[in-house]
Amino acid sequence: MLRVRSLGTVLAVLALLVVPAHAAPSGVHVTGSQGNWQLTVDGQPWTVKGLTWGPPAADAPRYMPELRAMGVNTVRTWGTDASTKPLLDAAAAHGLRVINGFWLQPGGGPGSGGCVNYVTDTQYKTDMLATIRQWVTAYRDHAGVLMWNVGNESILGLQNCYSGTELENQRVAYARYLNEAARAIHAIDTQHPVTNTDAWTGAWVYLKAYAPDLDLYAVNSYGNVCKVRQDWINGGYTKPYILTEAGPPGEWEVPNDSQGVPLEPTDVQKRDGYTQAWNCITGHPGVSFGGTLFHYGTEYDFGAVWFNLTPAGKKRLSFYSVARAFGGSVTNTPPVITTMNAPQSVAAGARVTIDVAASDPDGDPITWSAAWNSKYLDGSGGLGNTPAEVSGNRLIVTAPDRLGVWKVYVMAEDGRGNIGIETRSIRVEAPRPAGVNVAQGRPATASSYQQVGDGAPFPPGNATDGVPGSRWASDWSDPQWLSVDLGAVTTFQHVQLVWEAAFGRAYEIQVSDNGSDWRAVYGTSSGNGGVDSIDVTATGRYVRVHATQRGTGWGYSVFELGVYRR
Question: What does 105-129 look like in DSSP terms, one character per residue?
Fold first, then answer.
């Protein structure tokens, strides 16, 4: 018979007799061993079925149900700060997790961000470590956190800041700094892994050598996504990885079309590109933990049409291909555009005929619209909607007034929130006026011309040489003038001014018989560039454009000054 002499003895005996229950594992961890790793969340396997996140964090509650229905369990960001909390809250409420990014310069790949000296700039590194510590401390216990991702594409991006031996020194210093950041995060948070993203698997060489405290690697890869597995094998790496951006080939890796600009994949090719990317990502079991495909955003511009699954909130074919890949729900799907035929070149302001063919898988009626984009003229990403006459499978739109290569888009909507989009490039050229250009090949003079800079010099004779791509460019001041000597007093009926981007807002067409006494025959104060076609009957030996107000902050620039006798 067991004698109990005190309460303490009773508790001790009970402790011996009762088998303690094992607490469920908590946190996010990389488990397993070489080539047989697993990412676990609270003890359960977690394949990252993710998308990069575009909308404002404050709008996350609005979008999370849609992501959950797609089968998404992860979203990725590039920065973490006070504004991140609504995203984490909404993700956790819907069973999703967030890969929380920390932006480091130069970041963003080629040409993006400022240049930091990772060898000597102690202040920047100290400040960024303090920021990282601040937000890791703030969110380490949040149920929406999946992992921390320090830096984006900077090992590649450093090539835009340095070269040769110094570039190598900077990349080594950057990788060592990543390791310092990983240690700092681990000291605060032992429940979430740390990774780093770059734009090429070549960066992993530096991580392997100088950042051993990272828990896994990450890479952004589009056209080469199916080569990542073999790169990992060839590199003899000892860490698992995820893809933090992936999808169909990007603008920087596709061939050029007949206009010399990147050939954008079709809607169908993009759809299939996401499927292929996901198959390659998941084709490396035990090493690849999945990935976040690019991009869940509502922007509606050049880049959004190339990559967004939901431009302007409308679902693409690629939205549904990702949903299928992730095991999500798929109901009504977008119209499928199978044909888009457009002319290779058109005259400025002319009517453009575009023939299309499309079908809707669900039998929904299709509504067509169109837009233009000037990315390859001036770098603008915006889409400008343009009126379209629609007759069956034919759209007729009006060409822009500015010369150069434009992108024209056709959009097919089904009235159920779905959209199909196709695009082609078209070269807009100056229209050919009737009559004889009596100014072509004649000597020209100007108040000034640009003698230095990219492509310079730009002398006045370029405006009368008959070569479409050559131009006169003035100094950046008002007023300026450009004059042509017709050789004899001549009667003409039409003047054509073909402006480059630097156009004249206010100018006159003037004539003179002697080159010194001028009389105005036409004037405007509302010029908008492009091609100015001016019907004016006048007589003189000299014809001059006298400009008094620039339309831009540059000078004046004219491709062609044509004077036509009919």
Answer: SS-SSTT-S----TTT-HHHHHHHH
